[in-house]
Every structure is written in C-alpha cells, then in structure tokens.
Amino acid sequence: MVAAESVGLALLWVTVAVLHISALIAGFLDLDVMFHFVIAFTSYLVITHLLLNGWLVRIYWDKISRSKAVLLYVTFTIPLYLLLFRVRHAVAAFRGKNQVVARREALKARYATSIENSAVVEFPSLSAAVRRASCVPLSTEMSTNGSQGDSEVPLSSWVVTETNVDAGSKLIKMSSDDVGVREPNSFSHLFMSDLSELVAGRKTLSFHFVLNANNDIIHVSKTSTLPNGLPDRVLSLSPLTVCNDTHYLINLSQGTGYEVVAIAARNEKSCVTVTQANYSSFIWCFTLYSTALLVYGLLVNLSYNGRATGLYHAGWMFTAAAWFLTCRGVDEPWTDTFAKIPLRLCFTVCRIVLMCAVALGGLGNVAIMYLSAKAAGYLALVGELVYKNLRRNVRLWGDVVDRYFFDKTLVMSYQGGESVVCCGWAIWCHVCQPSEHSLALLVAVLLGQAAGMIYLNFVRRFLKEPFKNPVRILMMAKDRLNAAEKSI
User: Fold this and answer.
1) What three-state secondary structure class fits 230?
2) Distances (CA, A) of 268 to 111, 141, 478
3) Cβ–Cβ < 8 Å for 483, 476
4) Digit-coded pLDDT (tens) for 355-367
5) Contacts with 51 (C-beta within 8 Å, 6 or more apart), sequence order
6) Residue 217 bridge partners (DSSP)
7) Of the given ranges (160-169, 244-253, 405-414), which has the lowest mean pLDDT?
8) Are 414 and 377 in contact (CB under 8 A)?
C-alpha cells in the first residue's frame, strides 16, 4: 500500500503540473476572453511555487547538495524530488533481502518527506548491587487485556490518566499524589482557549507510556502540554534504585501544512530521541485553490463557448483528486481518507463551483459570500458549544485527544451553517439571472448540501479513528523509531 501510494502521488503531481501548464497555454490562446483567468492563474501558480519551493529549499538545504537544491528550486520540482524519494524507498522495500529490511524501507517511504533529527544516549552498565524497581505502583493502571502487542485493544480497556508535568522543569512526574490542574469551565475559557484551539491555533498532544519488563503497558497518560523530558531514571539514592521500566514520551503538534512528532524512548540501557517534522500536506496545500481557479476558468470558457472545455474539466478534476488524497495525516488510514471524500465533494467542491459562478458577476460578491458562509459556520459552532454547555452541562471536545483531532468537516452544526448560506446564494443567483445554467447550479447546490448533511450523519460509523486508541499511538511511535533505525 505504501508503494502504491508513493508511486501514485508522484504520478499525480506530474499529471497536475502538465494540466496546469496546458490550462495556461489554452488560456493564452483565447486571451481576449480568458484574460482575467490567465492573469489570476499565472500569478497564483508563480507566487505559490516560489513560496513553496523556497520554503522547501530552506528546510532541506542541509539534506541535499547545494547545486541540486538550486536546480530544483529554479525548475519548481522540489516537491517531485521528495515524492520520488518516497518511490525509491518503496522500490527498495520490494527488493529487500528479508522481511525486516523490507519493513524498514517501507517505513522510510512513508516518512520520506520528514525532516528527522535523532540521537542515542547509552547509559553506564549497572552492577548487580543496584536495585531495580518500577516507576508505577502495582495497584494502579494495570490493563486486563494483556500486552501492548494487541493493536486492536479498545480505548475503554485502558485507564488513561492526566500526565503530571512539573511546572518548572516540564519533566514528567510519576507521583500519584499530584493532582493535575483542571482547565476552567468558564465561557471566557470556552471562547478564548477552546474555540481558538479547535479552529485556528497550533494543536498539541502528548502521550506517556510505561511498559514493564514483560512489555505490558502499566501506565498511560495524556495532556495538551508538551513535556520536555521523562521522569528521573534514578528513583532513590539510598539505597540506589533505578527504574527498570521502558518509557515512551510522544509529543505531537500540528499547524497549517506541517506536523511535528517528537519521540523519546528510554529503558535501563539507553535513551533514544527522534524528532520528525512532516511537510507532506504542505506540498499539496496549493491544490485546493488551484482547483477553484480552474473551475473559474471552466465557467468562463463555457460562457464563451470556448474550445478547451475538456482540458479545464480534466484540470480541475485531477487537481481536486490530488487535494482529496492529500488532506490526511501521514499515519491516517486510507479507509478514513476515502470515507471523508464524499463529504469534501458535497461541501467543499460544490461550494467552490458556486463561488466561481458568483465570481462571474463580480469579485465583490465572492468576498461577501465567502465571509458570510464562514461566519454562519462559526456562529453555528459557537451556538452548539454554548447550548450544550448551558443546557446539558456538556463540554464538547473537552478531551485533549478530541481537540487535537478535531475536524470541522465532520461537525454537523458548522456544515449546516455554511450550507444554509450557500443555498441562499444559489437561490439568489437564479432569481437575479434565471437561466438553464443557474437552474442547474441551484439544483446541484441543493442536492449536494442535502446529500452531504445526510452522509455526515452516517460517516462516523465508517471511520476507524485509530488514534482514539492509545495503543495505536504507541505503535505509530515504534514505527517511526524503526524507520529511523533507532528502535528500543
């Protein structure tokens, strides 16, 4: 699957690039009617690729030779180079001499677009006189389902506590006497912290796992704070007692176009740290807006009975497909990605077509429509948060895992608010300028929003959402350590 994904994304990037260039050439051939599209599309592609390739050059400057970096920047092909790097590891996985080598190469293919920093610290060997003990009291947090090797263990079978982090050193504390500071349940905190974290802010999540000598999970904790380090290895000085557990600290953070995963794994003999900054979604983030511009070019071409209708159709469809297939985390299963595609098709793509149709009547209308739809969506989301908090005393997305993996595409209130506004604009367009095209657009928008809202009621049953299970988080961390060849 990793090999197919790697090859498919590389071919898709080449196809999209060819279609973009072809769309520009077709626009220049009909410059008298496609003038606005040509200016907008050319400016967007040049500026976007200058910024995209410039940012990637800065990131990968020390990873590739300077002459190659300059050549890739000038030719706008750094994303393709990184995607082909994935393909190379996928081919190496097929040619692996044994299963261990093949799996390691497959993991490298998956994380090939990451910037990795890793280190190994070896501890001095301990004498037999040194006592060894566990950090976790025997009476707490034992799982009844056996070892962590079972990756399908449901979340409810594990006692997941709040990670205690020392305020001064930001090191994890294992003392059971410490009580985690609860976040205030106030409306000011709801609007200033929770809402901003859900829709705009940088999201953070940390998991701490402790495994005993039998490789069983004996402690799991989580927090939205990113600890700087694991608990002290030395439990007591008199007599000298050392922790003999295996600790995993997994810090996750994400922003627009990137995700950073920092892993620290420590046992009695050594401590391994691996930090990976993944920019795979950043490479593809421009495709959503180029899809919108290509749809605009298609509508302009249709209104003038242009000759390149088929080319613009192929252009926006392939570019939209690239966006569909890359709106995902590197560890997200493909089942979840494919389950969300109908939602993005009914909501995002359908609204893009409506906005482009509105744009034919003036760019001012597009700005008003976009802002009104977004305002309606966020107001509906705030209304749901306040209503549930006031009437039912329920704090939506109060758990740190739910906040980290929050996706407004899956929120009924948000999508409902935007859909109402978009349907209103579609009706307004048809009433102001009735025609066959406006009627077809109205029907498509109404059906698309209705189908999206209906599918939204059922889509969650198709989603695996593996990271709601902490064991999956641990397995992901081990995969990244194996890819870096720094496994404990």
Assistant:
1) coil
2) 28, 21, 17
3) no
4) 999 998 888 889 9
5) none
6) 211
7) 160-169
8) yes
